[in-house]
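Subject: mismatched residue count in predicted assembly?

I count 498 residues in my input, but I want to confirm that the predicted structure covers every chain. Input:
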Amino acid sequence: MSASEQPHPTRPSIAASTGYRLGRVLAPNRAYRWLAGRIEARPRLRRWFTAAERHSKQRLFGCRMCGQCALPATGYACPMSCPKQLRNGPCGGVSANGDCEVYPGRRCVWVIAYERAERAGHSADLTLLQRPVDHRLAGSSSWLNYWQGRDEGLWTSDDGLAHPAPVHRP
Amino acid sequence: MTAPGPTGGAAGTAGGLRAALAERRFAVTAEIGPPRGADPAAVAEKAALLRGWVDAANVTDNQGAHVRMASLAGSLLAARAGVAPVMQLTCRDRNRIALQSDLLAAGALGIPHVLLLTGDHPCFGDHPDAAPVFDLDSVQLVWAARTLRDEGRLLSGRTVAPRPEFLIGAVENPFAPPVRFRAARLGKKIAAGAEFAQTQFVFDVPGFDRFMAAVRDRGLDGRCAVLAGVGPIRSLAALEFVRTKVPGVYVPDEVVRRLRGVPRDRVAAEGVRLCVETIEALRAIPGVAGVHVMAFGYERGVPEILERAGFRRDRAGRLPVGGGVGAG
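Triage response: the counts match. Full output below for your records.
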């Protein structure tokens, strides 16, 4: 699938457990931040790196390069492959058999996300409030953004009581 | 929940859903679908049927992705006709700029309640060639509306003054997979700022009972008024339509058997009876704050359903008095 096609629910081709392991490997640290800085200083290297991320994540997750990866909080199923690109869970139109309302015969990506997260003991992740997408980051490398701290505050565990968290990124 | 203003705003009617919830009365809402056309009387006629029977009426936003008169205009017309509107606003057709602008417009016109939802995909409507926008999702839109109202800030962080005062509502479908996530999803909307929630049609009362148990377990019923969606199925064709053509509606086999088991000329009456019985059953479920009657274009039948379910035409719905746009 290319990012220019309409989004359609995509079942990841790797197990959620592999995703969570990968997530731990990619967790930001000083070395990654240094590396991201070096890559971003060289436009050709940056393009190459971004293309590598695009190719691998498209194959694995149906990634659409939103540039602000939600996978760690969604059972490693990509919410941007939802036809409505919902970041906070499934819409109310999911068929009784779990299929997407827009693409009958394809399982809702949020049903997939829920099943994967629950099996991995991560279902609480799905209750996080996901902030709106920053469309300026579309097409950029979410790994570089992640390592450089540009996507901090993508989500919050706020429960709306006492001092509600702001909807805009802190 | 912020306190209601003395008049409920320029377009508001006395009372409304906010007052019903504040007084802990069992609330009743219904639906007004704006016309495909520019006739203001079409809204006024539907509102006149509901006036006094409901605390508020939802004015739908291009329902089913079919073009209709805007919900903001419909809401204003409903208010003029003496029914407190719940302005529906979906993420389908507007980006965050337009959504926030419409929320400010609703505030300026004194729309007392807004219902914020994702919206049906354009592929189901009369313009399947339209761009699906979905810049925000429903949780984010609720969050933006709460931030706008309570903090006077836009998504950009910029301040607005004065702030709108509406009550914020959301929807939930207790029956759509993953069913065990639905109470948690409602919890997200409540954390984002939803003060009332209307549900998809309930035909499966035991299933709804399980959903409400999960809502109560999470302590959500104390933070948000849940209004259960109901409606009469009045023909076998309508039964087939809601079963197969309306995304997210679940009709259990028992209901199908019951409606198919009566002579054709009795289906309408049986459907209304089923709806009345459903309302009575829902009233007995702890945490249910009211019912939301969606009548599939059968607005004239709503009073009869409500009367048979034990309600009276005693809800504040008098014509607004004094100045303001609402006085028409």
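The domain at 16-231+289-308 of chain B is CATH 3.20.20.220 (TIM Barrel). Marking this ticket as 'not a bug'.
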